[in-house]
Amino acid sequence: MASDHKTEGPPRSSQPRVVVVDDDPVLVDFFTKALRPYYRVRGFIQPLQALNHLRRQDADILITDYTMPDLDGIELGRQVKEMRPRIKVVMISGTFSLVRGQPSQLPAEVVDRFLAKPFGLRELLDQCRLVSRSATSGE
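The chain above was modelled as a monomer; its predicted structure follows.
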């Protein structure tokens, strides 16, 4: 008899918690749907709403765009790390290199990984796996 059990990812309760923040609602929707089989995901299009959520709820990974209204990704990451020092921040941007220079110029105390847009789903999943592993090993 065939089983209908899906083996896409770990049991929901053991999945790392991810918060995705981008002012583009299409990207937030895409990222949350793509990550959902592997992570417990919450998506936000307003960085201040994400910050308020993270004041109340813990997360393991913050995936945030660099350029957003009200609060850029660096400042969002900085404020979140002040509250939750163990969270890992994956910064994504299509403009960072044009505006600020190389990703190596990102503040290492805030940004754990960087992805330049456009990037593929596999790259996003790989970065999440890397930071998720370092979070569980205490790095």
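The domain at 14-136 is CATH 3.40.50.2300 (Rossmann fold).
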